[in-house]
């Protein structure tokens, strides 16, 4: 009887030590993951605040997109839709623009036929005051990171750089 009690106590002690070690390992993994994400994880968008009106920001954006080979394929005034659908709503101007670089779109569709679910690239222009606005552009590299295709990911990297050029030029 003493031997059985001793064996159970050993098992309980042994399992407690394993649990403590596992907790320590999980804690270290959590902290490491947090630090890596905080230090190097790109956001799903890139943005820039401008000291120009909302209307001027849209005009400049379209000009810079064209310089990088993008065309505007859609433009939705979200504020108009929301304000008309929700009584009493007074949303500030907020436009969603769909931009497409046909050369890159054709290449990536050839590699991933369903990638069109992510196209065109989304861009927001937001009113912040009468003389300021913000442009927010999707980061294709991050947003499309679920696609496990090295060739497609290389295209997303190139498109991301082109969109960053647009933002820098504004």
Structural summary, described in words:
It is a single chain. The protein is an alpha+beta fold and 170 residues long. 56% of the residues lie in helices and 21% in strands. It folds into two domains: 1-41; 42-169, TATA-Binding Protein (2-Layer Sandwich), CATH 3.30.310.70. It has helices spanning 2-40, 54-67, 78-85, 102-111, 140-143, 150-169, and strands at residues 45-50, 71-77, 94-100, 121-129, 132-138. Helix 2 (54-67) crosses helix 6 (150-169) and helix 4 runs antiparallel to helix 6. The termini are far apart.
Give the topology:
Layout: H1 2-40, E1 45-50, H2 54-67, E2 71-77, H3 78-85, E3 94-100, H4 102-111, E4 121-129, E5 132-138, H5 140-143, H6 150-169
Antiparallel strand pairs: 1-5, 2-3, 3-4, 4-5
Helix pairs in contact: 2-6, 4-6
Average residue-wise pLDDT: 83
Specify the CATH class of the largest domain.
Alpha Beta
Supply Rg.
Answer: 25 Å
Pairing-aware structural class of the strands and helices? alpha+beta
Q: What is the count of structural domains?
A: 2
Strands, count: 5
Name a few traits of the molecule:
alpha+beta; TATA-Binding Protein; 5-stranded antiparallel sheet; 170 residues; 6 helices; globular
């Amino acid at each position: 009887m003493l031997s059985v009690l001793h064996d159970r106590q050993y098992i309980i002690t042994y399992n407690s030590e394993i649990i403590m070690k596992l907790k320590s390992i999980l804690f270290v993994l959590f902290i490491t993951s947090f630090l890596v994400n905080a230090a190097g994880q790109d956001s799903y968008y890139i943005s820039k605040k401008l000291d120009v009106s909302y209307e001027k920001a849209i005009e400049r954006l379209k000009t810079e997109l064209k310089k990088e080979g993008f065309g505007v394929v859609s433009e939705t005034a979200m504020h108009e839709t929301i304000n008309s659908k929700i009584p009493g709503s007074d949303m500030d101007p907020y436009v969603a623009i769909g931009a497409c670089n046909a050369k890159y779109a054709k290449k990536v569709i050839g590699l991933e036929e369903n990638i069109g679910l992510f196209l065109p690239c989304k861009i927001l222009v937001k009113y912040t005051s009468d003389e300021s606005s913000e442009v927010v552009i999707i980061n294709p590299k991050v947003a499309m990171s679920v696609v496990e295709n090295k060739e497609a990911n290389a295209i997303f990297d190139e498109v991301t750089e082109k969109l960053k050029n647009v933002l820098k030029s504004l």
